[in-house]
Every structure is written in structure tokens, then in C-alpha cells.
């Protein structure tokens, strides 16, 4: 059998005598043209002939040599050349259908295929990755083995992989909540009940600021416990929830709590240091300071810290702080995590189908995260932005990146906060250097047991706080200058060094815990 018509010079003989491929106008002749025998047909070395339609058809019809398949163009040669299927058409490669017996025509398609680690099935559509469904029998399409390669905290199984850090999150969280709750209750009782009549103005100002510090440190404890609960609830299959967790509102809220707590705590320490220094330098004038001034200062710490903490969460600054978005499953992207250039290109394509002028298409205001998400949802309500990755989404712990470089989202903002914190730390150290400097007017006071005890607590507090904040700032500066910081240093800094003050401050800055223990005993 032979067709009445054929496509000439396409590399696949169809005429019985191969005249559609072996004529002069086809230019350089294919290897099979040299095998035309006296009969005008393709002649195998075994001395039997084949019609043109059996040449380059993917099967070795010349039983021994297989020469009818050698040199064929627009063909993909299967790796197992001895199999029944020798080759397939080039357009059958990476078409999600295994045409070679060994599926080698689908084995080198990384842009469209995901290869199941267990081999059952051999591959799935890459667009089905991270869609919440296990298309691979072993679930590797949802949890690829290299998806957490280089992660500071996480693995495919656990949000916080290191067992020591898992324990420390709970220990410090419980200490921070318990210790600061005790300080808050004790301080409120001093300010509101019978003990208030015995308090001087200096003591009341001090108590107000300690209360402010304790509330801030309590928030850090809440953050740590929430982190521990999330780690426990996702243990064993964290990778299935990583994207939705880091791009979701709960993670943003936890990150905001941590920043709010740490900044209020540090600024409150600076205010307390200033007040202590004021009392030492001008002891008489310090007694005239009104309590409402300390309340105003306490409120100002929350305004300052709230601005820093909530700014990355604000839609007003979304363009600066957001680097990626998480989209619902759709046929337009191979992955659910999309960066802005890719989303912008797609959004321009959508606009090209609408009656939008070229000038508007060039307007960058048309391509904000919010407007592009709205445009996608208007195109099809089933396709929408499920969340955003930004300032609080770098790691699973939801903390902003402590050590940034120029490649990180919002690095100018992060570096500015670090510089401010460093200056506050230096100020606190300088303030207590003034406080501890011997003064003739305070010579009698300095010999009292109460003053010595107070100064001892202050010395421990300043030492612990500065021992935490100063190294954090210095390491951040080193990292920004190009010094490589290991993941181990980063994880210990973020999980232990940063929040440890919240657990220890109640022990050093107030005697509430000691009073509570004394009553219990």
C-alpha cells in the first residue's frame, strides 16, 4: 500500500519508491536514499526490500542492521535501541505520553515534567506540584527532596528541624509567658491597690516602665509558644503546608508580634536607662517627674515599634516588601509561586485582549500586586492570589531576615532598623557607664544595701541585653559587607539569642518572680 499524495522533502518517505524524499529538489539527500536498489525500493543488507512508508517509521524493519532507521531526521531515538520501538517523532517527545518502551522520550523534560522520586508513576505534570494532592505515589510532587535544600530552619518533615531548637522554643516561650505574667500581675497590684500609697513618684515611674517592658516581653513568649504549636501540628508533613503557611496571614501576624515585642523591649530599656541616668545626675529633680509622662513615653514605644512592625504588612508598601505571590492552580503557570516579572508579563497579555491603550499598558501603576491579582480573578474567578511572600515570609519562623544583603526584599528597611537598634544599644551602655561612675553626692546612697542590689540587677540586665543585641547587629553588618554567615549561626541567633531577653528580663529587672516564689514557699 502507498498513498496517492505525499509531502515532499519532510524527511519521512511516504511514496513506495521514496521519490517524495529522494528527488533532486530536496537538496542534500537523506542516508536512506543511498539504499535504493535495482527494484527502485529500499534494499536492506539482508537483500529484501521495503516500501517507503516503512522507512523511518520508528521500527527496525531491516531485521539485523536496522539501517532503515539510521539517519532519520525529526526523530527522537529511544535509549533502548534494541526494543521494538526504535524512535518516535520529535513532536512526541515530552508530550506526557510514553511512546518509547523505556519512556526515554519523556525522561528529559524538566521544564514540564516532575519525576517522582519513587518512580510510581514515572512522572507527573509539573503544574500539579504543590497543589495539595499527592500525584506521585510517594507524595514527592508535594515534597521534593531538594525543596528545603539550604533552608535555615526547616526540612520536608518539620518546620523547625533541629531538636534542640524545638525544645528551646518551648522552654523560652513558657519562661517568657510565665515570668512576664508574674511581673505584670505584681506590678499592677503595686500600682492599683493598697501598696500604691507607699510608692514614691520615682517608684511609680519605674513600675510603669517595667510593666511596659513585661507586656512587650510577654508578646515574645506568645510568639514562641505559637511557633512551637505550629511546629508540632505540622510535624511529619510540613512541606505540604510550607507555602500556605509562609504566605498566610497567621505567619504575618506572628512576625509582627516578634518585631513589635523586640522593638518595644529595646526602646523601653533605653528609656529606663535614661531615667536611671537622670535620677543619678539630678536626684532632686527626678522626684518631680509626673507619672503621666512615663505613660506617654510607654505609649510612644508602641507607636514607634508598631510603625516598624506593621509597615511591611501594609498594602501601601506592598510593592516594596512583597517579592512573590502564591496563585491557585491554573493552566498558565507551571508553579504556584510566581515572581513579579512573570506575573507582569502574564498581566500584559491579559491587557492585550482588552480595549486598553498602549500608554496605559506602559503605566507601571497598572501592574501593582493588587491590580494584577484583581485582573487575574476578573479573568477567571477560580484563579486568584492566595497569599504573598515578603518581609515576614523568608523563613518558616516568620521572623524578618536578620542578616540581609542587597539581594533581599526590603533590605534598606531591615538595615535601617538594625542600625537604629545598634545605636540604642550603644546609648544604653553609655548611660550605665554614667550611672556607675562614682559621684560624691551619691556616696552615702551607694553604700546602702538596697542601692548595691539594684545596681547589681542593672549590671546583669545591661550585660545580658547588650550581649544579645550587639552581636546580632555586628553580625548583620558583617553579613551585609560580604562575610558569609553559616545557617547554624543564623538559626541560633533567631531562635535563642533574639528572644532570650524576653525570658530573662523578668528575673533581672523586677523582683516580682522572687516575691512570687517566696509566697509559694
UniProtKB/TrEMBL annotation:
Question: What would be an example GO MF term here?
Answer: G protein-coupled peptide receptor activity
Disulfide pairings: 94-109
Name the InterPro entries on file: GPCR_Rhodpsn, GPCR_Rhodpsn_7TM, LDL_receptor-like_sf, LDrepeatLR_classA_rpt
User: Is this entry keyworded Repeat?
Assistant: yes
What keywords appear on the UniProt entry? Answer: Disulfide bond, Leucine-rich repeat, Membrane, Repeat, Transmembrane, Transmembrane helix
Supply one GO CC term from the record. plasma membrane
| Main location (coarse class) | membrane
Query: Which stretches make up the G-protein coupled receptors family 1 profile domain?
Result: 185-509
Single Gene Ontology BP term?
hormone-mediated signaling pathway
Its localization reads: Membrane
Q: Which residues cross the membrane?
A: 167-193, 205-232, 252-272, 293-313, 413-437, 458-478, 490-509
Q: What is this protein called?
A: G-protein coupled receptors family 1 profile domain-containing protein
Q: Which species does this protein come from?
A: Ciona savignyi
Instruction: Kindly list the organism's lineage.
Output: Eukaryota, Metazoa, Chordata, Tunicata, Ascidiacea
